[in-house]
């Protein structure tokens, strides 16, 4: 038998590896979009906690677009939360001009809380 052959029953090519014929499998091509930190965190979470979903997305060629969507939604939620909290707590440009250290401390606190909200609502669910 040849080193490579096509099986019409299942539509796969097989290649000889040592004494065995193994199917020539390839992942489907998918468009690669840049994935930010939120998408990378969610990918790590899926790999560790939802392996079946991760593998299904990977083998269907939808992982990258799924992670890019999660990343975009997370970034929008984060920005919206930071803006709303800053307005509610009176953290303004005027405060930044008057007392920079207080402004930095309050903005860091707001960003930390917004990060926790995004992690709870999108990344680790």
UniProtKB/TrEMBL annotation:
InterPro entries: TnpV
Annotated source species: Dielma fastidiosa
This protein's name: Transposon-encoded protein TnpV
């Amino acid at each position: 038998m040849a080193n490579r052959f096509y099986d019409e029953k299942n539509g796969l090519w097989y290649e000889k590896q040592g004494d065995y014929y193994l199917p020539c499998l390839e992942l489907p091509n998918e468009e690669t979009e840049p994935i930010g930190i939120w998408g990378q965190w969610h990918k790590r979470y899926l790999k560790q906690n939802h392996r079946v979903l991760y593998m299904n997305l990977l083998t269907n060629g939808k992982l990258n677009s799924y992670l890019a969507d999660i990343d975009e939604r997370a970034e929008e939620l984060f920005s919206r939360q930071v803006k709303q909290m800053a307005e509610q707590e009176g953290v303004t440009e005027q405060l930044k001009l008057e007392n920079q250290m207080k402004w930095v401390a309050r903005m860091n606190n707001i960003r930390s809380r917004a990060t926790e909200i995004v992690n709870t609502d999108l990344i680790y669910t």
